[in-house]
Amino acid sequence: MSSPRARETPLPMAQHRYMKIRLAALFAAFGAAFAPISSFAADPVKGAVVLSSITQAQSQIIWDATDRVTELTGMKLRPGEGQRALEADAVRLLAARAPGIKSKRLTVRVVYVLSRQALMYGNPAMADKGPLLEVSAATADASRQAVSWIAAVENGNSTPGLMMKPLGEFPTTY
Question: Is the pLDDT assigned to residue 46 strictly greater than 90?
Fold first, then answer.
């Protein structure tokens, strides 16, 4: 009587090699799509910055602002000052990245790790990150208008051409 293992037929060598190549290509494409862009060595913000999607119409940048949120919550700030500081930093990032983007519109999505416990266990997953805000503008306007936009945001004023969309509340303690 033959064993169950003897009846199993292994994948033909060509199929096995093809699957390995497909998996390697998939991981390479996934890694390239979500890896931080190293050509922007002088980002004006602390934390990881990832170009997450690019189309002709819109590109999106995700900024992990955990370090900045930790810094701001440790300061003695009046209500709203931390949020405005984060918004101004997001506009700085938008302006810094705009020249290298070919899309018509650019969005910066600001996220942070929701709890210190998630930080203690190493590299937190995206599920551990909470959204704070999105800043969006026409890519062509981002570099030209950056200085006036930053000044307006820091003073709590609205800015034509710049869309601010709060997605969560700025933490009072962290």
Answer: no
